Structure formats: structure tokens, C-alpha cells
Amino acid sequence: MDLCHVPATREKGWYLALMAPNVKGPNYAWLDPSRLYCHPQGLQDCVADLLQPFQGDAVDVVAGIDAMGFILGAAAAATLRKGFLAIRKAGHLCVQTAAQPYTDYSGREKVMEVRTDAIAPGLRVLLVDQWVETGGTMRAAIELVERLGGVVAGVAAICIENSEGGKWIQERYKCSHCVPPLLQPRFDQHQ
């Protein structure tokens, strides 16, 4: 992996080629973006592309979704000079929490939690995750923020698939992702 090479022309999404395909089988995600995070310019350009639609929007805090959303969320928060809120899988927070059950992309039933003292009524939260496949995880995060009185300022992910859940989110919230329209069908079909 060449972490120094930067293409002469950097069009939106150039860094998507840094991602690695699944070689471990069906119990894993079909694509691994972690190599993209290792590339300094790739990570910077990815975060810039994700945040571009929100320039000038009111955002009070960036929330990253457990666990890979922590990487992009923390990078986005640092870029925006905002605080970072971790939305966790159940059982990891030792403080008072609000919980929301959901079904993840693999069909597993899970519970997500957020600390109850972090979201005040009217707080504008930018939700960030690595990927929105079925939308179950992101929708649970949205429900937590809104139940605590927060406002979803937007949703950002490397890819928001055109699944039923992905479309539901895109129809209701301002969204940003990095996949160019011509490549979207390939991402939706996991190719």
C-alpha cells in the first residue's frame, strides 16, 4: 500500500479505490475502508467531501456511530472544530443512557446507546458513520438524537446505499456521501 501516492487530479471519490474487498467471507462487510483512513490525503479529501454540503449549516456537535463511524466522525469534528459524541453499542457506557434497539446490515438484533446528558433540546447533531447499507443502524441513531430533543443537522457516510432504509434517510434528512452517481449502482450491488 503506497501511502504517499496522490493522483495528479483528485476528483471527488478518487480515494474510494484505496478500499479493500472482503477476502474473509459472508460474515464480514463486502468492502473495508480502513486502508483509506491510513492515506493522509485520502482521509482529508474524504472528510472534506463529506462536509462540503454542510458548509455554512449550523452544527453543534458531530456524533459518530460505533465503531467505524468514530474514525470519520472524530475527523469531521476536528475539521469543523466541534465536539465529538460517541453513539455506542449497548453495554459500553458507564453513565445514564438512552437505548434504541435496531437490526444491523447483517440482520442481527442489537441495541445502541447514547449518554442522556450530551444532547440538549435543539442541539444540532451531524451523524457520521462509515457506511449506510440497510439504514437500520443510522435510523436508530436518528431516533436516539430526536428522542432526546436534538435535531439531526445531517447524515454523512462514505456510502449511503439506495436500499429501502438508505432511501428513507435520504428523503428525510440532508445527506452527504462520497460515491459518484456513476458508481452508485456498483456499490448498491456490492461489486
TrEMBL record:
EC number: 2.4.2.7
Localization: Cytoplasm
InterPro entries linked: Adenine_PRTase, PRTase-like, PRTase_dom
Name used for this protein in its record: adenine phosphoribosyltransferase
Subunit structure: Homodimer.
GO cellular component, one term: cytoplasm
Domain Phosphoribosyltransferase span(s) in chain numbering: 57-177
Recorded family membership: Belongs to the purine/pyrimidine phosphoribosyltransferase family.
Pfam families hit by this protein: Pribosyltran (PF00156)
Swiss-Prot/TrEMBL catalytic activity: AMP + diphosphate = 5-phospho-alpha-D-ribose 1-diphosphate + adenine
GO molecular function: adenine phosphoribosyltransferase activity
Annotated metabolic or biological route of this protein: Purine metabolism; AMP biosynthesis via salvage pathway; AMP from adenine: step 1/1
Keyword tags: Cytoplasm, Glycosyltransferase, Purine salvage, Transferase
Example GO biological process: purine ribonucleoside salvage
Organism domain of life: Eukaryota
Main localization, broad class: cytoplasm
